[in-house]
Every structure is written in structure tokens, then in C-alpha cells.
């Protein structure tokens, strides 16, 4: 089993190199190889999820063993949280790649699109597998550099401007992360996350700890586009081709932003109430201001982009409440419930926001516009797009029986049990405003009267695009099953336990 862990990196990386070489010689090589590789990672990750091994599993790159108790090699670490993230990346990656078979045909340079797509997935898989900060940063940069190029793929003025803005903000984020890593190396003389966790247990320099934590929180907060670090996201997510928007919003900001924050602040640093409160405040601000920025938008993809900020606020709020309760030595069951709510909403958001961006891409594919005022009357002409968009709108708004209802319910119940009554009230109010925002989308895009002369010529999108949207809509319902005991213990709780077991992470990885 351990020997297979690198395949999550090797397979998409090999595809990224093979596609430019053979795409011009074998027709369809690029699109079918990318989809096949993504499907293989789906099968492998789901197998890991449902046939769990005794975690954590460690793969030592090059077989380097510790010298005098110091880990000198590079590690891939597979635990419950890693498997959970790999499943999200693989499923959304496969459906986005399959959707692209039809969608991306209108662009030139298809082979470069798929090569960059595979490179971006390589980076994300590497980030969640990395057991050391060096690997984590290298894979993070591989992923974001590929995403810069993909945002600019349309090479129109708007795309190039958005990509430039994304690169500037991304470069600033990387600088902050490198400074944070340098501070940690200067203090601990190691880059292995588990080893750092053990060394930091003996560090009592509170100013050093807070400064380093703020550097990393600001850097990864920029990558995750949490408010006030969100300025790049609306332009980048709305300008990219829609399958890439689905990947950026559905998985990239989670893998290189949210995942990194919760992994490092639960498993590497000692929990502190100060940092937990900072994370809760960031989550609350993102949740509240994101939805107010979204509801006034008339560009469909910009509206979805701002909702990504708001929904990430729910994820950070849930995990932040869990972190604060643990730091205070409070009720472990309430902390576990809050973290479970945050992670549950993370996977739900990957599915319903990915679907909403694919819906927006389908509308733009047929109508050539992203402006809601220029749409209308599409429910009869595009029934699959309309039905799946309604499912995703209900899911993100927290309407039962869709998945978003249950994850928001867990976060709100945990907030009430933890006596964070005001935060619970904010979560309810934001969900109501989200519903109003998506009723606007449904009315203007699908159920209003159309002013377009060519409305009669509009028809449903091709099979590959429809298939991906239908599967994601079904997942919006199927993921609701995670609320039930038994299913929840199999899929969600191993990831929660990886974070709850924060004090033993270093010992479990290094064995001493």
C-alpha cells in the first residue's frame, strides 16, 4: 500500500509531460489521457476511503531513514484528512476534465490546457500528501503557477489582467509563507512537520510563535482568499474557463489554503486561544461580507466567486470553533462536532460550487454571456443545466434534503452548544441571504422571459458537459447521507480524528 502513495503525484505529472509530446500525433490523446488519469485517482482514493489502512501511512522518498533521530528524507504522509482531501481533488478533477472534452474545444491549444490541468492536480495532491514544509511549498508553487496560466488561457484582456492580479497576490502570499517557513527552520533546524511539532513543544518564546503563525496565516489566508485577503479571487475565478473556475473554487483554494491552515495549526503548532479567535474572526468576516458582496453582482461567475468566499467562511468558522474549544480544554464532543461540520461543508462546497461553475460555463457556452440580465427563459431550452443548477442553488442555500443543509446545521448546532450564540445567528442569517441571492440567479437565468432573439436556437449542452453536471447534482443529494452514523464514521470521522489527535501527530509519524 505504501508504495502506491506516490502514484497520486506520478500519474498526473506523467500525463502533464506526455500530453504535449503525443497530443499532436494521436487524435484526442490529451483529453482522454487526462480524463483516464483523473478517473484512476478517483478509484484509488475511494478505495483508500472505504478500505482504510491503519493510519498514518508513511512513504519515505528515496528510502532515507532518520539519522540520530532526525528525519533527513522527504515524507509523504497518508492519514484520514489526507484521504478525505484526495477524494475531493480526484472527484472534482475527473468531472471537470471530462466536462472539458466539449467545453474546451472552442479554445486553441487544447493540449496545453490538459497538460496544465494535470500539473495543477499534481501540485494539489502533493500539497495534501507532503509531510514536510519544503515539499508542501514546492507542490503549492507547481499548482499555483499552472493555475496562473489556466486563468489567462483565453488570452483576452480581461483574462490576462485577472491572471496578472492573481500572480501579484499569489507572489505576496508565497513570500509570507517562505518567511514563515524560514522562521520555523531557524528556530527548530528541521522542515519535517512532525519533527517541528515535537521541537515546538519545548519552545516558550511566545512572540516568535505568534509572529510565525501570523506570517503563515496571512500567506495561506491569501491563497484561500479569506477576507481581507480576497481581492484576487473574483477576477481570477470569473475570468478562467469554467472547468478551471470549478477547480479553483471547488478544490484549489481548499488544498493550498484551507487544508494547509488546518493541518499546520492543528497538527504542528500548539493550539492557542489567540490564534483560534483570529481564525474564527477571519471565518466570520468571510462568511458575512462575502455574501453581501455576492448578492449585488449581475455577472454570474463573479456572483459565484464571492459566494466562494462566504462559504469558505463557514468552513473556517466550524474548524475555528473546534480549535478554540480544544485550546480551552472544553467539551471534546462539541469540538469534534464543530470540526466535522467544517470538513463536511468543505466537501459539500467542492461539489455544489463546482457544479454551479459548470452550470455557468454551460450557459456561457450556449448564450455567450455571463450577465444575468441578458439571460432568461433557459429552463425549457436547457433542462439539464436548469435542473442541476436548481439542485446546486438549494444545496448552497442550505435547503433540505440537499447536503449544504446538514453541514450548516452541524456548524450552527456546534456553535450553540459551544455558547457562540451570535456566530450561530450570523450563520443562519447568511444562509437566508444566500438563498435570496440564488433565487435571483434562478429567476433571471432560467425562469424569466428572454429578451434574446436567438432564444429559439439555444439547446442543451453536449453529453460530456451534461454528464458531469448530472453526477455533481446527484452528489449534492448523496453527500447528505454523511449525516447518518455509520456512513459518517466511515467517511468523515477519520479526517476529524486526524485533527482531534493534534498532540500525537509528531509521535505517530516519527515513532518516538
What does this structure look like?
By secondary structure, the protein is mainly alpha-helical. Helix content is 73%, strand content 2%. The chain contains 21 helices and 2 strands. It has helices at 7-22, 29-50, 80-103, 110-129, 133-151, 157-188, 193-200, 206-224, 233-239, 242-267, 273-295, 300-327, 332-367, 378-381, 383-397, 403-417, 421-447, 463-478, 487-491, 493-500, 505-510, and strands at 57-61, 74-78. Strands 1-2 form a two-stranded antiparallel sheet. Helix 4 runs antiparallel to helix 5 (133-151). The two termini are 23 Å apart. The mean pLDDT is 91.
Please give a quick description of this structure.
With 512 residues, the chain is mainly α.
Features:
512 residues, mainly alpha, two-stranded antiparallel ribbon, 21 helices, 2 strands
Q: What order do the helices and strands come in, and which of them pair?
A:
Blueprint: H1 7-22, H2 29-50, E1 57-61, E2 74-78, H3 80-103, H4 110-129, H5 133-151, H6 157-188, H7 193-200, H8 206-224, H9 233-239, H10 242-267, H11 273-295, H12 300-327, H13 332-367, H14 378-381, H15 383-397, H16 403-417, H17 421-447, H18 463-478, H19 487-491, H20 493-500, H21 505-510
Antiparallel strand pairs: 1-2
Helix pairs in contact: 1-2, 1-4, 2-3, 2-4, 3-4, 3-10, 3-13, 3-18, 3-20, 4-5, 4-10, 5-6, 5-10, 6-8, 6-9, 8-10, 9-10, 9-12, 10-12, 10-13, 11-12, 11-17, 12-13, 12-16, 12-17, 13-15, 13-16, 13-18, 13-20, 15-17, 15-18, 16-17
Amino acid at each position: 500500500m505504501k508504495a502506491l502513495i506516490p502514484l497520486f503525484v506520478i500519474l498526473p505529472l506523467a500525463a502533464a509531460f506526455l500530453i504535449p509530446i503525443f497530443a499532436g500525433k494521436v487524435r484526442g490523446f490529451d483529453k482522454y489521457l487526462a480524463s483516464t488519469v483523473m478517473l484512476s485517482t478517483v478509484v484509488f482514493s475511494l478505495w483508500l476511503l472505504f478500505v482504510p489502512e491503519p493510519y498514518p501511512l508513511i512513504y519515505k522518498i528515496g528510502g532515507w531513514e532518520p539519522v540520530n533521530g532526525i528525519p533527513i528524507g522527504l515524507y509523504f504522509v497518508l492519514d484520514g484528512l489526507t484521504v478525505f482531501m484526495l477524494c475531493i481533488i480526484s472527484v472534482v478533477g475527473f468531472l471537470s476534465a471530462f466536462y472539458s472534452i466539449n467545453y474546451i474545444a472552442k479554445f486553441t491549444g487544447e493540449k496545453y490546457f490538459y497538460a496544465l490541468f494535470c500539473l495543477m492536480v499534481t501540485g494539489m495532491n502533493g500539497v495534501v500528501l507532503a509531510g514536510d514544509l519544503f515539499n508542501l511549498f514546492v507542490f503549492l508553487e507547481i499548482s499555483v503557477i499552472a493555475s496562473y496560466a489556466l486563468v489567462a488561457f483565453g488570452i483576452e484582456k480581461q483574462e490576462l489582467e485577472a491572471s496578472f492580479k492573481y500572480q501579484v497576490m499569489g507572489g505576496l502570499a508565497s513570500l509570507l509563507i517562505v518567511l514563515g517557513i524560514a522562521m520555523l527552520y531557524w528556530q527548530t533546524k528541521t522542515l519535517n512537520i512532525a519533527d517541528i511539532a515535537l521541537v515546538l513543544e519545548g519552545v516558550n518564546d511566545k512572540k516568535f510563535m505568534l509572529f510565525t503563525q501570523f506570517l503563515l496565516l496571512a500567506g495561506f489566508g491569501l491563497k484561500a482568499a479569506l477576507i481581507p485577503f480576497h481581492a484576487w479571487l473574483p477576477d481570477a475565478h470569473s475570468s478562467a474557463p469554467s472547468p478551471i473556475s470549478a477547480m479553483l473554487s471547488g478544490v484549489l483554494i481548499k488544498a493550498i489554503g484551507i487544508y494547509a491552515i488546518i493541518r499546520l495549526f492543528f497538527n504542528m503548532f500548539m493550539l492557542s486561544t489567540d490564534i483560534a479567535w483570529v481564525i474564527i474572526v477571519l471565518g466570520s468576516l468571510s462568511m458575512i461580507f462575502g455574501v453581501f458582496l455576492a448578492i449585488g453582482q449581475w455577472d454570474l461567475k463573479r456572483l459565484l466567486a464571492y459566494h466562494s468566499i462566504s462559504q469558505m467562511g463557514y468552513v473556517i468558522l466550524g474548524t475555528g470553533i473546534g480549535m478554540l474549544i480544544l485550546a480551552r480544554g472544553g467539551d471534546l464532543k462539541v469540538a469534534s462536532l464543530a470540526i466535522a461540520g467544517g470538513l463536511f461543508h468543505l466537501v459539500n462546497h467542492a461539489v455544489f460550487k463546482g457544479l454551479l461553475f459548470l452550470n455557468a460555463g454551460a450557459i456561457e457556452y450556449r448564450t455567450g454571456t455571463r450577465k444575468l440580465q441578458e439571460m432568461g427563459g433557459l429552463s425549457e431550452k436547457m433542462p439539464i443545466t436548469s435542473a442541476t443548477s436548481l439542485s446546486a442553488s438549494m444545496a448552497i442555500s442550505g435547503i433540505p434534503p440537499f447536503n449544504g443543509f446538514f453541514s450548516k446545521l452541524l456548524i450552527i448546532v456546534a456553535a450553540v452548544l459551544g455558547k457562540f450564540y451570535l456566530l450561530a445567528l450570523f450563520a443562519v442569517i447568511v444562509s437566508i441571504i444566500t438563498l435570496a441571492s440564488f433565487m435571483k440567479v434562478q429567476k433571471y437565468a432560467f425562469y424569466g422571459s428572454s429578451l434574446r432573439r436567438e432564444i429559439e436556437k439555444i439547446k442543451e449542452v453536449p453529453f460530456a458537459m451534461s454528464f458531469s453536471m448530472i453526477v455533481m447534482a446527484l452528489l449534492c443529494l448523496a453527500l447528505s447521507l454523511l449525516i447518518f452514523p455509520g456512513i459518517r464514521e466511515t467517511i468523515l470521522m477519520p479526517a476529524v480524528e486526524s485533527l482531534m489527535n493534534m498532540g500525537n501527530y509528531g509521535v505517530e509519524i516519527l515513532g518516538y
